[in-house]
């Protein structure tokens, strides 16, 4: 069992508690395959070629490349002799009674989860935004940012590090590094679509440097955008066609289930680079607090992640805690430069999904 004490997982299996106080789990529990409700640890099974719906629990792995025909085992599910079934779903708790109680609960959950991280062999992925800055200011570990020299993320990380009174190590991205890393990411994750590869690129290349510097664990702020209302499509609900919900809180509940697929990609890419991810903002206690936030504590006007930013005032200067950030693939310029390489290789924008075609050519 990876990620949690088997006894805790066994109790959660008995009670159906989806948030039993862990940072996720996946594996074999006395002959039963289990994966936590947010899929924080990848789990794959061999699919029987004669039946697309039947999963063979005797053949499973945390690494899809170890299986002949791997399929992701779904988050929140278990499988035993009786078959595969959903065991855990996210709860729908009532909102906090008032803003003060909400912010205090978020602060306590976030700080407790970060402070519990063992810093032995640890580095921190740092973009200069509130999520990674919370990790940076509470963990005694070196900071790393990956990006092209003129990228937003490099500038933001350097200026935020100055405000925090620390240093950040810059992993300078290059075209050669991208061309080398793309097929490695694609093989590790078994994904060649442009978006997944673009997102994984800065993580993977930063993690390579982290591993080369002698660290084997990398702390990341993953989950904060989904849990605390960091996405524009959540902020604009119900007027954004990318979500079906008619409220901000409903949109939050709509994006949280996208985490298993995202985390699977990120964990596999980071492991391929030589480090194990550490994600304290995805601990059950943080998830439980985030699920109780009302819409105005997720988004208020132009401000996103309202409760998280308010909670961060105890740890961060306002100039850092109030910052917005770009998605890693854009802030690092990895997406722009991968597109440039695709076009230079003859994969023009008029072609259907030209960057994905380029990625596939590198894998071949």
From TrEMBL:
UniProt keyword Nucleotide-binding present: yes
Biological process annotations from GO: asparagine biosynthetic process
Molecular function terms from GO: asparagine synthase (glutamine-hydrolyzing) activity; ATP binding
Protein origin, superkingdom: Archaea
Keyword Manganese appears in the UniProt entry: no
InterPro entries in UniProt: Asn_synthase, Asn_Synthetase, Rossmann-like_a/b/a_fold
Gene Ontology terms: cellular component: cytosol
Keywords assigned: ATP-binding, Nucleotide-binding
SUPFAM superfamilies in UniProt: Adenine nucleotide alpha hydrolases-like
UniProt domain Asparagine synthetase: residue ranges: 106-238, 257-346
Annotated Gene3D superfamilies: HUPs
One Pfam family cited in the UniProt record for this chain: Asn_synthase
Residue ranges of the region described as Disordered: 1-25, 52-74
Name of the protein: Asparagine synthetase B
Protein's organism: Haloarcula salina
